[in-house]
Amino acid sequence: MNRLSRFNIVSLVFGFAFLYIPILLLVIYSFNASRLVTVWGGFSTRWYVSLFQNQQLIDAAWVTFRVAFLSASVATVLGTLAAIALTRYTRFHGRILFTGMVFAPLVMPEVITGLSLLLLFVAIGLERGFMTITLAHITFSMCFVAVVVQSRLLSFDRSLEEAAQDLGATPARTFFSVTLPVILPAIVAGWMLAFTLSLDDLVIASFTSGPGATTLPMRIYSQVRLGVTPEINAVSTILIGVVGVGVIIASLVNKRRDVQRRRDEQVAAQG
Amino acid sequence: MNRLAAAIASRAAIIVPYLWLLVFFLVPFLIVFKISLSFTAISMPPYTPTFDLSEGWAAFTESLSELSFENYLWLRDDALYFNAYLTSVGIAAVSTFLALLIGYPMAYAMARAPDSLRPLLLMLVILPFWTSFLIRVYAWIGILKPEGLLNQFLLWLGIIDAPLIITGTYAAIYIGIVYSYLPFMVLPLYATLEKMDFSLIEAAQDLGSTPAGAFWKITVPLSVPGIVAGCMLVFIPAVGEFVIPDLLGGSQTLMIGKTLWNEFFANRDWPVASAVAIVLLLVLVVPIMFFQQAQAKAQERDR
Question: What is the predicted ipTM?
Answer without folding.
Answer: 0.85
